[in-house]
Amino acid sequence: MTPEDRLLLLCARQEFTPEHQAAAAAICAGGGIRWDRLLATAERHGVLPIAGSNLQRCGAALPAAVAGRLELAIFENAAVKERDADRLAAGLAALREVELEALLLKGTALDLLVYDAPWVAVSKDVDLSLRPAGPGWEREKGGEKEVRRALYTHGVECDLDGHHDLTLNGLLPLDFGRIWREARPVTFRGQAAWVMSPEDLLVSLCVNACRKRFFRLKGLFDVAETLRRGGPFAAARLAAIAREGRSCGVVYAALAAARGTLGADLSDVSAELPPALGISRLRAGLLRLLVAAFRRFGSFAGRSGRLFGLALVAVSLRPADLVRFFVYGFTRRPKRLAIPPTPQAPARAQPAP
Length: 353
What we know:
The protein has helices at 3-11, 18-29, 35-44, 48-57, 64-97, 106-113, 144-153, 176-181, 198-211, 217-229, 235-244, 248-262, 273-277, 281-297, 303-316, 319-331; strands spanning 100-104, 126-132, 156-160, 184-188, 191-195. By secondary structure, it is of the alpha/beta class. The chain has 16 helices and 5 strands. The model is unreliable at 333-353 (pLDDT under 50).
């Protein structure tokens, strides 16, 4: 791995220990850091704010332009997350008016449950799964379609009875009825919402890591931080959910990638995970070998990361699912709705120390 990659792997974490700080400072002191490449990679992988905060803490002598860009990234993301939180709160209220309940997914849930503060990682959109609030609900009653269209226009992806990201566009048979039954109620800025059980949340993040070809730092960061802060997890329950959703290889690959790159602690879930997931020793060993090969020969900045990620996808999915995954990816690119420009950072937004 390049020095830039090694530095990002040290800094893409919320628990930035003195040992991590010393190792990061040593890499910086060794020289040869291509700062433009590091900034571009961190930004593309969605971890520029947390990496910037940790680089500022490690005591390394950063070029003035780099230090300024890192600080700006924190304030920019704080402003974006504040805007998105306001929109989400208003959206939850509007959904309640049309008798829909919302399950917070991915980064939206992590903002509440795992991140020290919402600004630490970049989320491109807000993801919700919706269900009727009562048995007598009717689809077109009360302007449900208009509310959902307005939310989509402002970057809130809200699907009824599921979510396309977590099923890989219908590929995986996730049981959202059961997920809702085991969900936990939360309050988001005074508005009622729901979050998944710890095991369902972890599985959903593993699926999302697969969707991003595994070696995207934001996805690995989410899995590693959820393992550290989102538990406790029941390994048997995690395996049962993965088997139910036909995502055993995906879950194992994501956990192996998070451990192999960011040092994620799998002690709560890994003791008997391969046999519990029904994964053969050969397949589990191949997944770990690919992660180790990426760690040695790959890079987050170049084409090699994408190639290793595709190889991990190929081994993690069942053959029939693999064909559908790539056919969909190459033939049905989703259309992105325009999102209004980011407002100026509010004066009150302050990064964590």
